[in-house]
Amino acid sequence: MRKRSASSAAVAAATVLALALTACSSKAEDDNPGGGNGGGGDAGDGESLATGPGVTDDTIALGALTDMTGPYATLGVSITQAQQLYVKQVNEEGGICERDLELTTRDHGYDASQAISAYNELEPNVLAYTQFIGSPFVTAVKDQVDSTDHAVIVAQAWTAALLGSEYIHMVGSTYDVETINAIDFLVDEKGLSEGDTIGHVYFEGDYGENALEGARYAAEELGLSISEQQIKPTDEDMTAQVGTLAREGVSAIIVSAGPRQAASVAGVAAAAGLNVPIIGNNSAFAPQLLATDAAPALLNEFYIAAPTLPIGSDEEGPSSLAEAYLEEYPDATLDNGVVAGWNAARLVADALRIACDDNDLTREGVAAAMQELNDYDNAFGIVHDFSDPANPSSLESFILTPDADTPGGLVVEREAFVSELAESFPRE
Questions:
Q1: What pLDDT does 42 receive?
Q2: Which keywords label this protein (predicted)?
């Protein structure tokens, strides 16, 4: 296996500014467009280029399955617009493998039937997916992807149930590991100790339940107790759940849910006088919340565990992306969905470049290329390894906290780290 690596400076320039993108010299030159039946043409080095679904002589079709109208609407819009910007920049620099990228988007509104229907609609016509929001939905198609479809998916979902697939990838740690790191932060820096109880408000389904697995593991190892409060994605008023946690005297709260639920937890806790640290998984915050009545609570002892630097960081990767994004979308709100979308699109594109070099633009060729990215620095603070499908690309997490004066609303509270418990956590 060839080792693929890059310095942060080089990646930042190539990734964010898209000034160093180089097209592969392997455009098919025969009369067959090389679409869905695995045809091919002559690559630039004289070898035949294998192609598959979504690839013609002129284009590479990609899919995006997002949520622009459901509980993750704010993040879904940012993720999608960042990916559209990335595709635009790639095409302006000559495309990949002398082909333009085409991104087709479907909004499933975080509804299971719509999500699966949208996946099946696009599946015959795309080479890969730059996003699929929703752990339950990606998990639902996993067997189909692994057994027959073989299209690479970069999921906007971090459940451990997706590990083990050659085709489904996540940028960062899984929810269980992220939650373990979050509890480590609470113990090391917020004074939690043996005998304390942590409240855990979590979505039913793969997201929340995988986060709960990490919480249970950390609690058992550290002598803590967990007060479990399961909710549905449609639940937005957390009064009952927080009331229970207050009666149980919790010393901290974990939120494995969406931004609206996290804001409700923080606001209700503050109103009830439950002044304890609250920490959410990576998708539990949106900066738009800082313009609501929940802002004072969110600006006081509220944290997010995340697999990336925030968009408001002054590091080269985030700052350059923020500038390019606002230039393209001047009325948009910056949030970490911009980072997540950009990094996922760029990951797919880098795998396509390797597959082009290997003369194999089939789905299987892209999947094999993805596993060559084993020292992958995307210029957003954490180096990733996609070589082993059985493991997350990283075990590290940043701890972020809201800041109303920072673009994107988040700043780094604790630099990227991996706790000893996360390193020892058993993964099947």
A1: 43
A2: Signal
Give yes or no for a contact between 201 and 330, defined as CB atoms under 8 angstroms apart. no
Segments in the chain below pLDDT 50: 1-44
Domain spans of the chain? 8-173+311-394, 175-306+399-424
pLDDT value of position 324: 98
| Fold adopted by 8-173+311-394 | Rossmann fold (3.40.50)
Residue 47, pLDDT score: 75
Quote the pLDDT of residue 45: 54
Instruction: Give the length of the chain.
Output: 428
> pLDDT tens across 342-358, in order?
999 999 999 999 999 99
Angle between helices 316-328 and 8-16 in degrees, nearest 10: 0
CB 17 within 8 A of CB 320: yes
Q: Which CATH class is domain 175-306+399-424?
A: alpha beta
* DSSP 8-state secondary structure symbol assigned to residue 55: B
175-306+399-424 has the same fold as 8-173+311-394: yes
Q: pLDDT (tens digit, 9 = 90+) per residue, 172-190?
A: 999 999 999 999 999 999 9
Q: Are 160 and 136 in contact (CB under 8 A)?
A: no
How far from each other are the two terminal CA atoms of the chain, in whole angstroms? 24
Spatial separation of the C-alpha atoms in residues 376 and 391, rounded to whole Å: 15
* Amino acid occupying residue 9: A
User: What CA dihedral angle connects 226, 232, 237 and 243, to 10 degrees?
Assistant: -20
Q: What is the pTM of this model?
A: 0.87
Predicted confidence at residue 420, as pLDDT, reads 97
CA-CA distances (angstroms) from residue 168 to 8, 95, 156, 313, 337?
A: 25, 24, 10, 29, 19
Cα 128 versus chain centre, distance: 16
Distance CA 123, CA 128 (A): 8
